[in-house]
Design goal:
Length: 139
């Protein structure tokens, strides 16, 4: 595993962060749940191509956002199979602690609404409006 990714993984696991990104010099992190921090970071239009990310839960939506940010590698505590496919298709190294068929919703009564909404979508640019629309519906 990449040195910076080991660092990010350690920060994620030892603090109460939901996601942590670093390039070895700059660290950005959030305690917000879901994909909201990733959308915020993506929309800041920074160059994240030297960054790696550690995240508690990476479903297909988060994977598409990491692909849009063009990060180098992602570590997830929980990773869905479809997220792994998205990351690999976008040439992003991927590591996880636990692989699941699909991410469950917060109430554990079904699947994550974002992951469900992205079913069948393969293109990262197509995914962004679907993610945003789904978040709006969930408010």
């Amino acid at each position: 595993m990449i040195k910076e990714l080991e660092f990010a993984k350690e920060k994620l696991e030892k603090n109460e962060y939901t996601c942590f990104m670093t390039n070895g010099q700059t660290n950005i992190f959030s305690r917000d749940r879901g994909v909201k921090p990733l959308i915020k970071w993506y929309e800041e239009n920074n160059d994240y191509s030297s960054f790696v990310a550690a995240d508690k839960v990476v479903g297909k939506g988060a994977a598409f956002l990491y692909a849009l940010m063009n990060v180098r590698a992602v570590y997830a505590i929980v990773l869905s199979k479809s997220a792994k496919e998205v990351l690999e298709e976008n040439k992003i190294e991927v590591y996880c602690k636990k692989m699941v068929e699909a991410i469950r919703n917060r109430d554990n009564t079904g699947f994550c609404p974002i992951e469900s909404a992205l079913k069948g979508i393969k293109d990262k640019k197509e995914a962004l409006p679907v993610i945003k629309e789904t978040l709006e519906r969930l408010k």
